[in-house]
Design a protein that fits this description.
The chain is α/β, with parallel strands linked by helices and 519 residues long. It is 53% helix and 8% strand. The protein has an eight-stranded mixed β-sheet, with helices on both faces.
Amino acid sequence: MFDTLSDRLSGIFTKLRGKGKLTDADIDATAREIRLALLEADVALPVVKAFIFNLKERARGAEVSQALNPAQQIIKIVHEELINVLGGEGRRLQFAKQPPTVIMLAGLQGSGKTTLAGKLSRWLKGQGHQPMLVAADLQRPNAVNQLQVLGQRAGVDVYAPEPGNGVGNPVQVARDSIEHARRTAKDIVIVDTAGRLGIDAEMMQQARDIRDAVDPDEVIFVIDAMVGQDAVQTAEAFRDGVGITGVVLSKLDGDARGGAALSVRHVTGEPILFASTGEKLEDFDLFHPDRMASRILGMGDVLTLIEQAEQAFDEDQKEKMTGKLLAGETFTLEDFLDQLIAVRRMGPIANILGMMPGMGQMKDQLAELDDSHFDRVTAIIRSMTPQERTNPKILNGSRRARIANGSGVTVMDVNQLLNRFADAQKMMKQMSGMMGLPGGGRRKATKSPKNKRKGAKGGNNRPRTGAGGGLPAGFPGGMPQLPPGLDPNALGGAGGGFSLPNLDFNKLMKQQRDNKDKS
């Protein structure tokens, strides 16, 4: 959603990096370009004015004039001001002292309220709560049925005494749901209300009546991030007419300019609580202003990547992999398959790589990544016998032909995978050595200087790896990566079935180290 804004800001910062000292003219020119970039992104004018005013005031202060690297200080200021625009520190849901906690959803029709109700209930259930959905949208056709389907998928109960489609009293349904929640020991009630294609008096009155009937602890406005400035005006209308306590951004995976997302917090004064990025129930998470600002500036989002990795890799799997490293055991194709499946649970590969710092410069290449390549890798491994997965050395020509036929690929594809897997095994041994573990392949002190020089030849071109640093096995330290052997650049091969964009990760990491040294 923020690709255009990110590209504009990156171009502005590139010009700044060549300047050893910034004059007032440089600051004015930079502020003017940033102002145009924000306006083109459909950010509300009051937000842009406040942003540029703060930027100029700070840029002319001591933190920039006395800095060794003024350009880096400007980038730092822009980053901090973006965080402020997005709300500073994120706020979390306020729970009632005596359950149930009542959460009322409001917004225009088509903003994604019903889908969000299912996502929120699933997320709360994962946090250890017992949520219940309430079908109080009785106007929109099949809204009740949609909520029931979402509740079933999320594994939560749905209170729907009325069929909907224009039948029933939504205020009475909302009022009765509270007592029903108490009887069934539900600690959270999520009320899905009706929307309209536009703001009208009838809609606002019904929302106020439902609010008065259930006395919600949170009134969350669901805003379609693709709508633009109309969404901000609607949020103001709901704030004044109903009284919202928080905002959820939906459809953040769209290709709109994203100005609403940057404007709503500043204009309404209410915090952004959650972000919804897709149609699946799991495409939902807490909103972190600092992480969103980092993504906009192309700095990546390593914390979210780590959190997703920790969720995708279960404890047993991490303990098993750690045990293998400690014991110096061989990394097998079975381990490789387990990690590939876990990585796929984290979402599309392009999204995972996009969270890494510096990957904003490779958006076009990332867009070409196709997850079906990794599905074919899975098919090849699953076409092997358990013995072959444990000991790939027994894979002779006839076995490789059988595996290729069984997985619908060519023998060349199988050979490529086995070659890359052999590299992955070597990397796992090196990781063990760096951690000071058995089987790590550390050179003995008796090696001659000649051999040392030979072994070191070309070593500077390889990315540095280290201990996991809290990440699951297969994510080397320093910069999060895919499991061993899943380097998209490495999977590409001449004439093979796994040809992917030529992503030069070594060059990228060298550039990141250079930038770090400069800062």
